[in-house]
Amino acid sequence: MGEASKTNPLSAIPVGHATIKHEDMQAHHHHTHAPVSRHEHGHHVLQVEDLSVGFRMYEEDVPYFRAKQRETEVIDRLNISVHVGEIVAVVGASGSGKTLVADAVLGLFEPNATVHGRIWFDGELQDADSLQKLRGHGISLVPQSVNSLDPLMKVGRQVEGFAHPDESHAVRRRRREKLFARYGLSEAVAGMYPFELSGGMARRVLVCCALMDDPRVIVADEPTPGLDLELAVRALGDLRTFADEGGGVLLITHDIELALQVADRVAVFENGTVVEETAVANFASPDLLEHPFSRALWHALPEHDFQTGGGSPC
Amino acid sequence: MPRFIARNIVKFVLLLLAVSLVAFTLVSVSPIDPVQANVGQAALVNMSEAKRAQLAEYWGANTPLWERYANWLTAFVQGDLGMSLRYNAPVADVIAARALNSLALMATAWAASGVLGFALGILAGANRGRLVDRIVKGYCFLLASVPTFWLGLVFLVVFSVQLGWFPFGFSVPIGVSAADVTLADALHHLALPALTLSVVGVANIALHTREKTIDVLESDYVRFARARGLSTWGVLRHHGLRNLALPAITLQFASISEIFGGSVLVEQVFSYPGLGQAAVTAGLGGDVALLAGIAVFSAAFVFAGNFIANVLYGVVDPRMRKGAGRA
Questions:
Q1: Hey, what CATH topology would domain A3-138+215-304 get?
Q2: Cβ-based neighbours of B234, under 8 Å, separated by 6 or more
Q3: Residue B78: its pLDDT value, please?
Q4: pLDDT class for B214, splitting at 50, 70, 90?
Q5: What is the three-class DSSP state of B31?
Q6: Where in chain B are the domains?
Q7: H-run or E-run covering A74
């Protein structure tokens, strides 16, 4: 945890979300709902408000010794909500800083980062410390690739994890065996090292890592790299099941087609903020989309002739 | 596997040939006259010309380099390392007696610098940019730039002369018969040279381990482990150590050569009767049999260190173990 994020914890002013009465109306909090979106206990399972992430860094085009530190805002007053039962996709260009949303929700900050904003989990306002406690205990990450596994440790032991000292190893192991059986991974996989996994096995292992900790929210950060659309949609079936069983998924992707296929709602990410958070159904026609960038995305879809008019998406 | 062993044996033989040849050549081109070096300046002046020639003939000083090398090599293959001019004893005996002292010194320094360097490196890497890191880094930079012999002299001045905690030199107390030397005496004499040698070794290992720790902590798998709820120390304990072990082992076994080099200087400063000191004596005295013997011994020693590192690679890293098994 960096110094900056300690001096600027997610500020604890309970305005906005908590005071709004939650009914299943079509539009609130600047977003529209999908049919499956539910407000369990009258609130979102995850709510991010006015999130800003900045970095202190040295000026780049100045001689080395004269370069001063300055603050660069990468995420700027971003809002997003995850309901129970839905997959929300954050769609934006590669390298635009989407991953920082995942980092912020997980309380993983670089030492030179400054983070402002409010994050609610299950109706409770969080700060940097409590977000850290929620890692693996409510919010779980599904990372991009097998590189996120320790290359020198057997897969089974890694899926079982180390961050739950309250549960005995035997309990964790049985739980892992059940998950492996459910996701079609044989016990032999548990004895393998990450470099021995095929791409498909690796993805299921990573999902098992997340489910092992029985989360309410899964943050999936580009979980299907290099897969074509059809395979990617199938690979994300596991997250669909998780959402259908009452979880919430925050899917971070650069692939608008994939988002439209598997997500219930899409948050369009541009210039460090979510410019429009809308139900997938609204992508049926550009007239239903409010922001010019969302409309540009719509036009850029293959079935709409890849037009790039109205601003260049991605 | 048999190919691996065969290849290493060939490498080893070639290495020994090269090392012994270089030792022979260097001694023969050195300006030191073996006759003068071995009988002493005063005796040489008083000696008759005929006596000098007789000695030169006896020691083979006029035999051509190739012939001498061939003679030595033939004897070496038959297990005879020759006689040492300076110690007037079989080279094998000189090396055996001295290697024991040197190995005790090097093993102590090697283990201490390895353990301490590894611990300090992790401590600094995990606290990058904080005060602890700066102290460890400053300490390492300082030590890495300090010459070993100078540090040895400083330690002698401080701990032996001023504080009187340790003896001034040698591996056993002066004036005590060999039978009466206790293990405590030996350790007492070993302590300061070993400390000097390990303090210098720590810097290298700590800085490398620190760098590697930072790499590991920035890796994707550590980010993921932290995202699953592990603290920095938890991450280091469960994922860091095994990933840091591999480079540490390599470094540790590769550092054998450096420790060996350092031991020559340290033994000289502390008048510690080890191989390093014998090598200096042999070099200055034109004692080519002893020098070649020591060169071959130390080459074998360093080769063994690197070979062990190679084998341990496979034991620690499943990617290499299983990869090799499949190929």
A1: Rossmann fold (3.40.50)
A2: A162, A163, B225
A3: 83
A4: very high
A5: coil
A6: 2-83, 95-285
A7: strand A69-82
> Rounded to an integer, what distance in angstroms lies between the CA atom of residue B202 and that of residue B115?
9
* pLDDT, tens digit (0-9, with 9 covering 90-100), for B144-157: 888 888 888 888 88
Distances (CA, A) of B100 to A238, B84, B138, B273: 64, 18, 35, 10
The conformation of residue A8, written as its DSSP 8-state character, comes to S
What angle (nearest 5°) sits at the alpha carbon of residue A50, between those of residues A45 and A53?
A: 105
Whether B234 sits inside 8 A of A163 (CB atoms) is: yes
CA–CA gap between residue A294 and residue A313 (Å, rounded): 8
| pTM for this entry | 0.75
Instruction: Return the pLDDT at B115.
Output: 92
Closest CA to A105 of A93, A91, A122: A122
Most B-contacting residue of A100, A148, A176 (CB-CB within 10 A), to test interface: A148
Average pLDDT estimate for A252-258: 87
Q: Please provide the average confidence, as pLDDT, over all residues in chain B.
A: 82
**Residue B228 corresponds to which tokens in the numbers above?**
């699953």
User: CA A143, CA A222: separation in Å to the nearest integer?
Assistant: 7
Measured at the alpha carbon of residue A66, what is the angle toward residues A61 and A68, in degrees to the nearest 5? Answer: 75
Contact A272, A76 (CB under 8 A): yes
Does the structure show a pLDDT above 70 at A11? no
- Measured CA distances, A253 to A103, A172, A220, A267, A300 (Å): 14, 31, 9, 10, 16
Contact call for residues A43 and A123 (beta carbons, < 8 A) = yes
For residue A23, the model assigns a pLDDT of 46
List residues of chain B with CB under 8 Å from any CB of chain A.
Answer: 129, 219-221, 223-230, 234, 238-239, 242-243, 246, 316-319, 322
Mutual angle of helices B91-126 and B275-284, in 10-degree steps: 120
d(CA B148, CA B145): 9
Convert the pLDDT of each residue in A116-127 to its tens digit: 888 888 888 888
Instruction: Verify whether the Cβ–Cβ distance B319 to A161 is below 8 Å.
Output: no
CATH code for the part of the protein at B95-285: 1.10.3720.10
CA distance B212 to chain A (A): 15
Token pair belonging to A42:
């009258």
Selecting from A140, A150, A193 the residue whose C-beta is nearest the C-beta of B239 gives: A150
Q: Which residues of A touch B243 (CB under 8 A)?
A: 150-152
